[in-house]
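Treating backbone geometry as a discrete language has practical consequences that deserve illustration. The amino acid sequence and the backbone structure tokens for this protein are reproduced below.
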Amino acid sequence: MKRMSFCGMTFLTTDAVADAVLELTALLTHGHNSELLVVPSFAQDGSEILVNLLVAPGSELISIPENDHGAERDTSRAVAVLRDQIDVLTSERDTGITTTRAVASSSADWASEDHWDDVY
């Protein structure tokens, strides 16, 4: 597990989610102003909560390994969505195609912007 810090707040998430969020944010360039990321996090009681992050070029994010939180939780679906968006951003460098959002949640049964009402 890793604790991420963003805008003066912290949240706990899996290593894979933290790594993907940092990688995706690092790929944002002048051609891509911002991304809305909805990522799984875990409250002190262990329950899953969703964290909304509006990241942009220059966003100041850090992740710090955190011990004693038990086994890694399954966030593979969230990581897959983030990795898909990383692939899109990487390919945009070559094609000039743009997209606007990445949505990731391991607890929801969706992963596209067709279901934004489910987030709210």
